[in-house]
Structures are given as C-alpha cells and as structure tokens.
Amino acid sequence: MAQITIRQIPDEVHRALKAQAQAQVQGKSAEALARTILQRGLFPADRVRPGDLLRSIWKDADLEDVSFERDRSPIDAASFE
C-alpha cells in the first residue's frame, strides 16, 4: 500500500480526529480513522460505478436474436523490436 504524509494539520483537527477515533466502538487509531474518512470522501457509497452505468444503458436492449460472426483469421504476433 502507498503511504502519504499530511503536514500542517491544524491542532484542532488533529485533536478531533484522535477523539473521534477513540470514541469509535472498536477504538480505532487516528490513522485508521483518517484512512476511512479519505476512502468515504473519495469513493462515496452512492457513487455511480462504471459497470453499473453500462448495465443500466443496456438493460432494456433486446439482444436475444443478435449474433456476431467471429473473425477467425490468424493474428500477427506482436513485435517488440
């Protein structure tokens, strides 16, 4: 996992983070609580995820009688020279 250092956090924010972490039922560390806050802030539970968006676009499409022909011609090998 990557690491990050956040400098110049106001004292009141640091105290509030430690107090809130201590008040948690599991007694989280301030570091664990900061990770949780960052994750929830960056990836909210109600966000639209790409797979869900694609599924919603195609959910009413009638593709039962659709068929695609596969190209079975040989492929050229990649050259990395």
Characteristics:
3 helices; elongated; mainly alpha; 81 residues; 0% strand
Structure notes:
- The protein has helices at residues 11-23, 30-42, 50-58.
- It is mainly alpha-helical and 81 residues long.
- The protein has a domain at 11-58.
- Helix 1 packs across helix 2.
- The protein is elongated and about 65 Å long.
- The two termini are 34 Å apart.
Q: Given the C-alpha coordinates, what overall shape results?
A: elongated
Chain-averaged pLDDT: 90
Unreliable stretches covering 5 or more consecutive residues: none
What Rg, in angstroms, do the CA atoms define?
Answer: 25 Å
Beta fraction: under 5%
**DSSP strand tally:** 0
> What does the oligomeric state look like here?
single chain
Structural class: mainly alpha
Q: Helix share of residues?
A: 40-55%
**H/E series:** HHH
Largest sheet: none
In DSSP terms (H or I, runs of 4 or more residues), the helix count works out at 3
- N- and C-termini, Cα separation: 34 Å
Task: Tell me the layout of helices and strands.
Elements: H1 11-23, H2 30-42, H3 50-58
Helix pairs in contact: 1-2
Question: Quick summary of this structure?
Answer:
The protein has 81 residues and is mainly alpha-helical. 43% of the residues lie in helices and 0% in strands.
